[in-house]
Structures are given as C-alpha cells and as structure tokens.
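In response to reviewer comment 3 from the previous cycle, which asked for concrete evidence that the modeling workflow produces usable outputs, we include below a single protein chain processed end to end. The sequence was submitted unchanged, and the resulting structure tokens are shown without manual editing.
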Amino acid sequence: MEQKLEIMPSVELAYWMGVLQSDGCLTTRKYRDRKSQIIVKVEVAPKSLEMVKKFSQLSELIFDRKAKIFELGSGKFKFSIGVSQLIPIFERLDIDARDPPRPPVWVSADYTKFGAYLAGLIDGDGDVRIKRSKYPQCVVRITSGKAQIFLQKAVKEMLKCGVTITHRSGVSMLGDRKIVGKWYCMEFVVSKKTRDFIKKYILPEMTIEHKIRKLTDFLSNK
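The workflow returned the following structure tokens.
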C-alpha cells in the first residue's frame, strides 16, 4: 500500500506550483487494473533548463518522486512524475493547475511564499521587458490564456502597486514559443513601490538567468 503523503504549505511548494501553473500540465495515466495516476509534466526550451532542474529537485523534496530530465529530439527538455495522491492533495491545499494561474490563500497571504510563487510564474510564462530608452521602465509581464483576475488582485495587495491586464490577439512570441490566437498579459512595473519585494522575495527564488539579469541590472541603476 502506498504511503500517504503529508504535504504542507511551504516556500518550495509555492515555487513548484508557480512553474506548474505556467509551464506545466497534468495528464492521467490509466492502468489495466483500472487504477489511474496523475502525471505532472514540464517541457521547455534549453534556456529554461535550470528551472526544470529546480522543479525536479523540488518534486523529489515535496512528493518523494525522483525522475530524470530527458532531452527530446526537438532539443527541448522534458520532466515528468506520477503522483497518484495528487488530486486530494491539491483539493486540500486549494491548488488549481488550470489556466489562468490562481494563488491559494496560503500563498497570497504570505510574503515569502507569494514571492516564490511569482518567481515560478516569471521563470515559466513571464518575461521582463525594458521600455523607453530615455527614461527606462522595467515591466514584469505574465502571459496566460485567460484573464488573471485573482493573480492581479493578489499582486496589487502584496506589492502595493498598479497591475494591468491587457487582452490581445494575433501572433506573438513568448521566448521560443509562438502564441497564436487570444491571450492576456498581466503587467506590473518595477518601481520604488515594488523593488524591495522583488529583491527580497522574488529574485532569490528565480532560476532563468536572462530574466534575473534584466531585473538586477535595472535595480542596480535605481
């Protein structure tokens, strides 16, 4: 009989959830004896490999599941684990893996956990942009297929800043991925209001080097 997993809210789980809700997906694997298992999968381009390595390490730490990261013929990297108890765990901790990303209360009410959660989202479906050459402005953007209403509210409350959601359609590139159709961009600005939170709670948990570098370079000049 499989040992029951005792999963508790943590900074590690918050980051793991951010990656799952941005770059991950869940599928169901069924067996001949009618039993089934939930499969957690993350598949990314080479520049996101460090994120997958951290996701893999946290999967072992949190769920006691160890698996290899495979390089696919396309050049992408894939990691997956099976967790048969995942649905009851998610229900108990109010974790929703569907789009758009929605932080549970135990994340959005805690600075450290919320910072780690945002780090996972930014490492995944986020990007950091520098706008305007004369008076540079640094913008953090998280892209989803649906409007991120709950996430917007949480960022406003925790970072004490303005947050916009813009509905867009057409063809866009997010890193190496082409997005065709309709999507939503949630954005907030790196400013005096948000810089301390970003430095203390988000940057220490991030793994994607070019995103970290943009944030740190901008903050070092402020």
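Helices lie at 11-23, 49-63, 86-93, 105-108, 111-125, 149-159, 195-202, 209-220. We consider this sufficient to address the reviewer's concern, and the full set will be provided in the supplementary archive.
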